[in-house]
Queue: 4 jobs
Job 1
Amino acid sequence: GQSLEQPSEVTAVEGAIVQINCTYQTSGFYGLSWYQQHDGGAPTFLSYNGLDGLEETGRFSSFLSRSDSYGYLLLQELQMKDSASYFCAVRVKNYGQNFVFGPGTRLSVLP
Amino acid sequence: GAVVSQHPSWVICKSGTSVKIECRSLDFQATTMFWYRQFPKQSLMLMATSNEGSKATYEQGVEKDKFLINHASLTLSTLTVTSAHPEDSSFYICSARGGRESTYNEQFFGPGTRLTVL
């Protein structure tokens, strides 16, 4: 089976840096994705790591260590609009090569 | 980026009726579509994976006779909730993935459909 763990909640202030961790146990691992979801909205893709290391996209960066079954999403220069839920998702090798989503981390950015 | 639409965005129905939700990829061909349900403040739970022209593959615990999925074309998948009951009330979200390897790592999500069964 597959299982992922994330902190349930994180709180930070505007302008700060926050790191959201994700650990996973899975068979047939392909890669790790991160999605952002605002209340009432659909998830939107942030990043994907297929190989170890850091991927940077603007204010957001994502890291993967396959040997540690661990990854994180780093958000810099936090803005109020970054308040949302963040999900890590593991892409698995199976019939559909689908993604298994973590429980999500609710980020609250305070002024 | 690729756009996925869902219709309707919300629906209220009586217990025992059936509801059909459409998911369309507007500007790309989706070889694979996924259907999820999400309860408030919870994660996305994959219900089924469908590939165009073949039967959907359901996740364990999802009743295939209750949640009928049809992926008749590369741009359209439908989910029909048959004989809906109040416990089926949820947020249903579809996602689509293209066939090219360059897009394989990303799912494009529809806006979701909020189903309320009275």
Note: The radius of gyration of chain B is 14 Å.
Job 2
Amino acid sequence: DTGVSQDPRHKITKRGQNVTFRCDPISEHNRLYWYRQTLGQGPEFLTYFQNEAQLEKSRLLSDRFSAERPKGSFSTLEIQRTEQGDSAMYLCASSLSPGELFFGEGSRLTVL
Amino acid sequence: QKEVEQNSGPLSVPEGAIASLNCTYSDRGSQSFFWYRQYSGKSPELIMFIYSNGDKEDGRFTAQLNKASQYVSLLIRDSQPSDSATYLCAVNLNDYKLSFGAGTTVTVRA
């Protein structure tokens, strides 16, 4: 399968714990995005990588969120000290062209 | 003011009819516009993009753009039950940030 893959697909954690999500983009795509989506809302931009460089991070993100893309391949999104408000679907997408995003199936986070 | 606004719906149309979805955006400098379809429980998938004023047709889908009015629309002709989904309008605010509306839910009645 040559699509965007995300792991884990589901994560249930207790408030205060740290969680990490992984995204493997389409191999030839140099652009990688993280979005967050809650029920009834559209995806909300979190951060953007071009190759290994993180070029933009949403001001909505607190310091508890960090993302990396070492070597410009896979990416990780870590949330420290999770809160109930972090419960959402975390979507990774990759692309060659701006706006033409290919999304993975998402990682659903539930914080108890 | 939200960057991208859509009517949330639901929009219910009979099979074979035309579904018309509307979207407005706030940043007059936006240059590219996208429509994504999201089935329930699935991720968004790109169905159309438009960069220039006017109409762009792709099969049963037509995207319309009016930059002066800051308005984008999507028409779905000969609607099928398989078109039942949430349609997300998205606007490129710059080279890397795509801003999405909340989506319009479409239900096609057989």
Note: The mean pLDDT of chain B is 95.
Job 3
Amino acid sequence: GEDVEQSLFLSVREGDSSVINCTYTDSSSTYLYWYKQEPGAGLQLLTYIFSNMDMKQDQRLTVLLNKKDKHLSLRIADTQTGDSAIYFCADLDTGRRALTFGSGTRLQVQP
Amino acid sequence: EAQVTQNPRYLITVTGKKLTVTCSQNMNHEYMSWYRQDPGLGLRQIYYSMNVEVTDKGDVPEGYKVSRKEKRNFPLILESPSPNQTSLYFCASSATGTENNSPLHFGNGTRLTVT
């Protein structure tokens, strides 16, 4: 079946850039997503990228997609303590509108 | 305010005692889905529904039931809960259509403990 993998933990200092990486196996993925989960809360959609794009930028967030290598990354510029959360990448199974999630990357921002 | 509302937020129960987790959305979305979140496994889909009276199994449907009698509600039913169903559950909804991107909106989760 489909698989989405992420590293489990990333620690950065406030003001630095964070890069969270993700790999996926489904070659027919149409949309890939980044969700943020803060403690005790549901998942909040951060951004998404369509599979025919290489890059998408939205304020401090930059998504890079390497479709050949099936590699997705999320860069957060000028990381703040409020960015501390778990970040999930996910790809979309268009047939059943299901997202296949990675296990999540916990981002810790040190002041 | 557009939202997906789950109840209860926390639930502790005993093995075998039937329970229902409710989910309601106010966005007139046709698609609704249930996920469970477990450490190290991310989120896995339990059941989904493309429209009223249309439900299908996701990746981990065993031990769960759902119903979609009306558009806004999509309850998750555990007829005989077991400890391996201890998890964090999320309901999600989105507008219909797979050609255009319509992101999932998530509820705030229900933490279930089965002893």
Note: The first strand of chain A starts at residue 4 and ends at 6.
Job 4
Amino acid sequence: EVQLVESGGDLVQPGGSLRLSCSASGFTFSNYGMHWVRQAPGKGLEYVSVISSNGGSTYYADSVKGRFTVSRDNSENTLYLQMSGLRAEDTAVYYCVKDPNFRGYFDYWGHGTLVTVSS
Amino acid sequence: EIVMTQSPATLSVSPGERATLSCRASQSVSSNLAWYQQKPGQAPRLLIYGASTRATGIPARFSGSGSGTEFTLTIISLQSEDFAVYYCQQYNNWPPVTFGQGTKLEIK
């Protein structure tokens, strides 16, 4: 059974940093591109970032470019999102999502982890 | 960036009836369109990809159609568990992928 379990969400002050983790199981993690998608409270879905299966390719939405860094450790089956320069508008539930064939749609989602940016 | 527009924002339908949800792309996305269902407090779930292919385990009462810029998600014989928010998402020229703003399907 595919499982994606995010962790690391917290309350952080504006300008602060946070690292999110996503532990994957139930599939060969190193074979799949992985994404981050976020959802502000009561709002819709916003695409954040993607990393290829070997970590060689990444992409960031304009809203987070230069502040967020996606990475992965295939030996630990873990996806990361390093967040810095956090702003109030980064407040959201962050979902780790699996891409079945690096086509850009998502067949499995984690439960999400809440990041709150507030003073 | 391709803009996805869903209509209506809220759809009220009685159980057992049919629901038709629409999604429009600002430019052609071919058949690279997915639909997701999200219930309160839960992560989204993939329903449809390739505009019309049901994901694993999705009941046959869910169907998707369309190509280019106009897409439809149809749910027949609505069950109580189908009342949720539905999002469309294009993945034609990505990244980035883009989502519609969602349609809330509520009980009439």
Note: DSSP finds no helices and eleven strands in chain A.
